[in-house]
C-alpha cells in the first residue's frame, strides 16, 4: 500500500476532522504540515497539488482528495465497518445535516481568511481587530452550536450524535467544541453537546487526533 | 403519497439547489415561501419546524429535512436513477468536493446574515454598506468559482461537471453562477464553468427551478 499523506494544519478544524476519521479507522499516515499562518498554503508547490490552497488534503489510493467532509465520506465508503453514516436514508440525512450545520454554517464564516478580512476592515477604522474577531467568533460559534443542540434527536440515547457509535456528526462536533473553548464561548448550557463531547474525548482515536499532538 | 412541501425562498441559492434536484427527479411539490428579507424564517412557527431557521427545508416521506446538500443526497439515495453522484468512490469524492467548494467556501460567507453583519460594521463607520457588500460578494464568489474551474477534471469531456449527466456539482454550480451574474462578478474567463452552465440552463429541469419562476 502506498503511503497515506495528510496535508494538515494543527489548528484547522477541517483537518482535525480528517485526523479523527483516520484514527478511528486505524489508517497509518504521515503528516505534511502546512502552516496557514506562515502562508504555506499559498505557495506554488501546494497550489499545484490543491488549487484551492486549503487544508486538509489527503493523498491516498493514488489520488489527492480535498474538502474534509468529502474525504470522510470517501473513507467511509472505502473502509468496511467505518459506519460514519448510519444504514438508513433518514438517519444518513440527519447525520449529514448535523455535519453541515457545523461545516457549512459555522466553520466557513469563522475561517482564518474571512475573519482576517473582517479584522482588516475594523483596523482601517481604528477599532481593535482582536476584539472584533472575538465578538465575531463567539456570535457564530454560539448560534451554530445552539442550533446543533436543538437538532439532536431527544429520543436518541445512544450517547453519540446519532446512535451508539461515532458518526460524521461527532467527527465534526469535537473540533468545533475545541474551537468554542479556544474562543471562550459559553456552551455550558448545551447538555447533549457536552455529554457527547465527553464521551468522544474519552476515546483513544479522538484523543490521538488532538491539535496538541500534531507535528508542526 | 403525502404532499411534498418545500420551504423556499426564491433568492436563496441553497433553495435553488433543492428545486433543481426536485425538478430533475420530476417530484411534484408545493412551495411554502419563507421571505428571508421580511424575517419570516425567524418566526416561532418556522423555528418550531426548523430550529436553525434556515431555508430550504423539505417535508417528504413523513419527515422534515434540512440542509440543502444533505437533502440532495437523500433524494439521490431514495430515487433510483437519480445519479446525482457517480458510481465510483473517487468520482463521488470529486463531485462532493466540487459541491463543497461552492456550498462551504463561497455560499456561507455570502449569506444574507453574514453579509448583513459586515454591512452593519461598515455603516457604523460611515462607509457605504452597499459598496462594502458588493466588494465582499465579488471577492468570495470570484475566488471560489476560479478554484472550482481549476478543480474540474480537464480530461472530462462529458459536458457537465463530472461525466455526461448533471450531478450534485452542477446542481450547486448553477445557483452560484446566477449569483455571480447578480453581483456583477466577471466570470467570462471561466470557460469550463460557462460551457457547463449553458448546457444545464438549456435543460427543462434547470429552467423550471429558476428564481424568477418561484411563488413568492
TrEMBL record, chains A, B:
Keyword Isomerase carried by entry: yes
Residues covered by the GST N-terminal domain: 2-83
InterPro entries: Glutathione-S-Trfase_C-like, Glutathione-S-Trfase_C_sf, Glutathione_S-Trfase, Glutathione_S-Trfase_N, GST_Zeta, GST_Zeta_C, GST_Zeta_N, Thioredoxin-like_sf
Gene Ontology CC terms: cytoplasm
Domain GST C-terminal: 88-216
Listed GO biological process terms: glutathione metabolic process; L-phenylalanine catabolic process
GO molecular function, one term: glutathione transferase activity
Annotated keywords: Isomerase
CDD domains named among the record's database cross-references: GST_C_Zeta, GST_N_Zeta
Protein family (similarity comment): Belongs to the GST superfamily. Zeta family.
Protein name per UniProt: Maleylacetoacetate isomerase
Amino acid at each position: 500500500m502506498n503511503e497515506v499523506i495528510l496535508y494538515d494544519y494543527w489548528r484547522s478544524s477541517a483537518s482535525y476532522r480528517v485526523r479523527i476519521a483516520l484514527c478511528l479507522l486505524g489508517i497509518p499516515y504521515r503528516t505534511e504540515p502546512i502552516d496557514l499562518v506562515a502562508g504555506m498554503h499559498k505557495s506554488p508547490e501546494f497550489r499545484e497539488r490543491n488549487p484551492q490552497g486549503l487544508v486538509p488534503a489527503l493523498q491516498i489510493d493514488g489520488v489527492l482528495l480535498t474538502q474534509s467532509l468529502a474525504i470522510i465520506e470517501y473513507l467511509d465508503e472505502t473502509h468496511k465497518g467505518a459506519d460514519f453514516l448510519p444504514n438508513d436514508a433518514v438517519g444518513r440525512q440527519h447525520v449529514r445535516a448535523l455535519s453541515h450545520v457545523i461545516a457549512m454554517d459555522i466553520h466557513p464564516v469563522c475561517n482564518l481568511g474571512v475573519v482576517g478580512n473582517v479584522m482588516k476592515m475594523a483596523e482601517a477604522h481604528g477599532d481593535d481587530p482582536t476584539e472584533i474577531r472575538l465578538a465575531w467568533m463567539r456570535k457564530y460559534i454560539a448560534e451554530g452550536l445552539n442550533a446543533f443542540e436543538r437538532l439532536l434527536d431527544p429520543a436518541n440515547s445512544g450517547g453519540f450524535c446519532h446512535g451508539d457509535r461515532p458518526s460524521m456528526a461527532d467527527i465534526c462536533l469535537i473540533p468545533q467544541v475545541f474551537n468554542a473553548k479556544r474562543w471562550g464561548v459559553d456552551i455550558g448550557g448545551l447538555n447533549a453537546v457536552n455529554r457527547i463531547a465527553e464521551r468522544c474525548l474519552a476515546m483513544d482515536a479522538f484523543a490521538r487526533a488532538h491539535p496538541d499532538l500534531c507535528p508542526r
